[in-house]
Amino acid sequence: MVVKNEPMEKRADRSADVKKAIWAYTQSEKVKSGLIWICQVADQVAAMDDPGRRQAVMLLQTLVRMVADESVLAARLSGDGSWHEIGRKINMALVMINSGVPQETSFHLTRALTRVTRIGGQAAEVLRQKGLF
């Protein structure tokens, strides 16, 4: 039988770090995908004419809100304040959509995507160091 000589606190801390890294990584991948979808759909919506455009804008707004909700969830799960900044960028994109200029969302979404990618990379590094990735 192998006996671990580490105090329980250290093992619990490592376990918590791994859980946070897993949550951060999975949420980053989900939000990253959503941001890319939003950019693609926003470009298509910008090229549309009425009445199809109105319906497409409603769909785009729903998609943006769903991705924004995922960033809020990520902030709660990880405790990382960077997710709040990502949420602000996503909300700014929603303002652009609501203002009738969906083509202007890419600036804000690209900045959010950069931050999400950084979070995912940091989480992947933690998991790699723990031998889990």
The average pLDDT is 90
How large, in whole angstroms, is the Cα Rg?
A: 19 Å
Q: What would the principal axes of the Cα set say about the shape?
A: elongated
Q: Output the number of helix runs.
A: 4
Walk me through what this model shows:
It is built from 4 helices and no strands. The chain has 133 residues and is mainly alpha-helical. The mean pLDDT is 90.
Summed up, what is this model?
With 133 residues, the protein is mostly helical. Helix content is 81%, strand content 0%. The chain has a single domain (20-129), classed as Four Helix Bundle (Hemerythrin (Met), subunit A) (Up-down Bundle).
Characteristic key phrases:
133 residues, mainly alpha, Four Helix Bundle (Hemerythrin (Met), subunit A), 4 helices, 0% strand
Give the helices and strands, then pairings.
Layout: H1 8-46, H2 52-78, H3 82-98, H4 105-129
Helix pairs in contact: 1-2, 1-4, 2-3, 3-4
